[in-house]
Specification:
103 residues, elongated, mainly alpha
């Protein structure tokens, strides 16, 4: 379906900095309930097509794993992928930020 954004406005649109006017179809889409990432339909309609597309982007036949979380989650996942059992990771302390390794 193609949306002609010009037909959504019944009055002239004032385009200055400040509150942004949204086209009515956008407002209707925002009114829909959120997708729940634990729902089976999310897996089938969003997650599976995304991971398959990422295989093509990264040019791999291996599994692509998506990890939702903050930047810290990504750093921890990256560190854990190179640390093996028995390794003794070291912590680096910086001003304003402290990260420690559990002994």
């Amino acid at each position: 379906m193609t949306i002609n954004w010009a037909q959504c406005h019944t009055r002239p649109v004032l385009m200055i900095p400040g509150p942004t006017e949204l086209p009515f179809p956008v407002i209707q889409a925002m009114n829909q309930p959120s997708a729940i990432q634990y729902d089976r339909s999310f897996d089938e309609e969003v997650l599976e097509p995304t991971t398959l597309a990422l295989r093509e982007v990264f040019q791999t036949k291996s599994e692509v794993v998506l990890i939702p979380g903050s930047g810290r989650t990504a750093l921890e996942a990256g560190a854990l992928s190179v640390i093996e059992p028995g390794d003794r990771p070291r912590a680096r302390h910086r001003r304003g930020s402290v990260r420690r390794a559990d002994a």
